[in-house]
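Q: What residues go here?
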């Protein structure tokens, strides 16, 4: 998903999460989600709805890192699309030592009546192999 210049509206189903995260603005992140969207949080539980999603994203912003993300694929179908991206988050630990978190995401986005795209399901580690 991409933001057009001077707007927070996502107009293409490609990755925009890193851009919103790097802005440091919770509202930019929340604007990526439908009001009843689902975000899988770090515990593996579902945060449903903007207010529940807000807490998880505020925790993510507390890391004060810099994220780089590359869209792996986007499979559009009518007004929905399946996305996969690879992200790397660079931040510091409690001892000010650099750390790096990375993963492969899975998302489903839906095109809105205004032409923007918003997450209906966001799973930050949804494309990772499960340990058995």
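A:
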């Amino acid at each position: 998903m991409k933001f057009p210049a001077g707007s927070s509206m996502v107009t293409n189903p490609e990755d925009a999460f890193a851009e919103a995260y790097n802005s440091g603005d919770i509202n930019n992140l929340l604007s990526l989600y439908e009001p009843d969207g689902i975000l899988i949080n770090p515990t593996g539980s579902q945060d449903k709805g903007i207010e529940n999603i807000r807490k998880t994203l505020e925790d993510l912003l507390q890391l004060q890192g810099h994220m780089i993300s590359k869209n792996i694929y986007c499979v559009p179908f009518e007004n929905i699309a399946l996305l996969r991206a690879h992200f790397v988050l660079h931040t510091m630990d409690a001892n000010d030592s650099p750390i790096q978190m990375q993963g492969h995401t899975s998302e489903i986005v839906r095109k809105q009546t205004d032409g923007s795209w918003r997450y209906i399901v966001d799973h930050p580690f949804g494309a990772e192999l499960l340990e058995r």
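A: Context that may help when evaluating the design: The longest strand covers residues 98-111. The two ends are 33 Å apart (CA to CA).
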